[in-house]
Every structure is written in structure tokens, then in C-alpha cells.
Amino acid sequence: MDDQPGRSAAPRPPAGFAAPGGELARLMTAGLGRVGAGGVWAVGDAGGVVGVGAAGVLGQGPYEGLEMAADTLFDLASLTKVIALWPCAGVLWQAGRLPLDRPLAASWPRAAGQPTGEVTVRQLLTHTAGMPLRTEFEQRYGRDRESIRSGVLAAPLHRPPGTAVEYTDRAAVLLGDLVEHLACAPLDVLAEREVWRPLGMTDTRFGPLGAAQTARTAPTEYDEAVGAHLRGVVHDPSARLLGGVSGNAGAFSTARDLARFLTALLDPPPALPWAGRWTAESLREQTGGLTPARGLSWLCAPGTDPAEGTFVHYGFTGTGIWVSRRLGRWALLLTNKVHYGREIQPLTDLRNAFRRAVFG
Questions:
Q1: In the beta sheet, which residues pair with residue 330?
Q2: How far apart are CA 65 and CA 249, in angstroms?
Q3: Cβ neighbours of 154 (radius 10 Å)
């Protein structure tokens, strides 16, 4: 395990705090009621899960009789960036094959002569690459997967790289293509081989899901083209155009599996080829005073000082995971808020209250 200053001084949360019916459960049940969605949450440390809970139902109409549970599968949306793309990038970085500060064109012939060729991997991971903010893949490039990938690579930059932090899914789509090129394998194969299988994350996979998995998946938004709520099929339209496997979205998982992943960030298994040094490098402020402050892929949690070292990543569907190496603590909150509508403020309030309760 790599050195993690201050972790030994952080005790486990008191048992009653995360116990069924305890302080955290009361906070979450009341908060989810205000949000208007069900959810699953868990907190833990390097030793594993300290507490887990669930409240509410999977959704409206035919889903009203199905309760949220510890094994409910969720469309992770942008959490795909940190549970699939980020660790796979770490494998290549630790092997010396993915330099963070070299222009993409220097190690990727396809990027030579393209506007994105001057961008670095660090800028992609910190969302400082200056790429266009909207995906708009179908409108701009059509529905062909290779046309979309070529279009992302060739798109003019929105602003000079390194001058602003502006979150865009295009960065993860582009980095996913580079990772696949360098590793000579698709992202879903890489994530399964390098991340999910070694950690025993048996429920985690890219969609579309099979019938058995779909039956315990929380539905997301109603899709006019399908004539039903999406369930077991990725909600993100850009990832759907790319076949359901993309660096920006497409993965499904459960609280149990994400707990394994987050625990590994605090206590990396020795043979894991991406944890340890990569986690330490990533979970520190990397944006040089630009706001919002970010690490590599991870966001410094809103409402905290970057020096506190509490990082988070959210998913548009209503998911979120937090980790603090300083405190030696992690947390997750999984909802399908988008199933009920896109008004985000009640969930933002709950996320912030959850973060304060767990991390201070």
C-alpha cells in the first residue's frame, strides 16, 4: 500500500452512524423523499463497507412495486469515466505508455494534423483541453461510429488548452479511443480484464444488459423512439450511438461492486496494475488554481477546499461516488433521479448533505 498521510488518524465512523435506522439512514430516507426518487447508499473505508442502506422504489407505473435493494443495478452514466476509463488509463500510465503531458499527436498518429493533436492526456482528464462543450454527435456526424470518432478528433477547439476547466464528454470519448489504440483492445474488454474481474465486480458491465440483469435494473428516462423507459440500455445518447461502450458512459453496476472499487482506492491489492501510484497522482488538485478544481478525472468535492482531498464524480442519471485518502473513507449514493425528471437541485442538496455527514 502506498503512503497515505493522515489516514491512520481517521477512525472508522461510529457503528451507530451508518447502522440501519441510524443517523445516516434517517438523513438519506428523508432526503430521498424530498428528491422524489429511491436510492441505495453505502459508506466505508480501507477495510470495506461500514454501512449500507436503501429506500424507495425503482420507479413509476410498473416499477412502483419493486423496491430499491443492495443488488439493484444502476446506469452509472458518467461514473463510467472513473470506474472504466480512468483505471484503464492508469494501467497504461504506470507502464510508461501514456505520458500525461505530451501532445496527443506525439504518440497517436491519427491525431497528427488534427486540432486535438496539441491537447495532452492530463488536459483531457482535467477537462482543460478546450474541446467543444456539447457532444451533438448525431447532428454533426451522423450515426456511424467511426464518423463520430473521426469528428471528435477533428473538431476545432473551443478555447486554448489549459486556460479553463469546462466539463465535456468529448474528452472522455477521445481518451477512450486513445486508450483502446494503445492497449489494442476495446474498452469493455480492458475494463473487465484490468479492473472489474480482479476486484470481483461481477455485476459490473457495459450494456445492453441481458434479461436477468435488466430485471433488477433501475429504469431511467422515457424514450420517445423506444416508447418506454430505458432499462438495461444506456441512457446517454452519445454512448448509445457508439454502441453502448464509450469512455464517457455505458457502464452499469451495483452498490456492492462499487464498494469493492472504492475500497481498492484506499487499500490497493498489490497485483492491481493501476492502483497505488495512479490513485495518488489522480486524487490531488491538478488544475493549477483554475475552478472548479479537479484531479485526474475526479472533481474536488463542491463545498470543500481542494487541500482537504475529498473527491467526487457524479453521473447524470443520479449517481455519485466520493473518496478521501486523507480520511481513509469513501461513500456512494445511487439513484435514478432522471427517471422522474431533470430538475437537479433537490438531488444536489442531498448529495451535499450526504458528503457533509460522511466527510465533514
A1: 44, 323
A2: 28
A3: 14
Burial of 162 (0-12, 13-18, 19+ CB in 10 A): middle
Distance in angstroms (rounded) separating the CA atoms of residues 233 and 92: 29
List, in order, residues 6 or more apart from 145 with CB less than 8 Å away: 241, 242, 243
Give the distance, in angstroms, between the CA of residue 55 and the centroid of all CA atoms in the same chain.
22
Question: What does the chain come to in residues?
Answer: 360
User: How many CA atoms are closer than 13 Å to the CA of 220, on its beta-carbon side?
Assistant: 27
Task: Read off the pLDDT of residues 232-264 as tens digits, 9 standing for 90 and up.
Answer: 999 999 999 999 999 999 999 999 999 999 999
Residue-wise DSSP of 54-86: EESBS-SGGGTT-B--TT-BEE-GGGHIIIIIH
CA 1 to chain centre: 23
Locate 27 and state its grid cell: 438523513
Q: Which three cell numbers stand for residue 283?
A: 486524487
pLDDT for res 107: 87
Cell of 171: 474528452
Cis link prior to 161 (omega < 30° from 0)? no
* Rounded-to-integer distance, Cα 318 and Cα 333, Å: 8
Angle at 76 between CA 74 and CA 80, to 5 degrees: 145
263-290 residue pLDDT tens: 999 999 988 989 889 999 999 999 999 9
Which runs of E-coded beta strand occur in the chain?
39-45, 48-55, 74-75, 205-206, 222-223, 228-229, 251-253, 299-300, 310-315, 319-324, 329-335
| Grid cell digits, residue 287 | 488544475
- Among 220, 252, 243, 271, which residue's Cα sits nearest to residue 83? 252
- In whole angstroms, give the CA distance from residue 230 to residue 233: 6
Alpha-carbon span 360 to 356, nearest angstrom? 4
| Distance between CA atoms of residues 5 and 194, nearest Å | 27
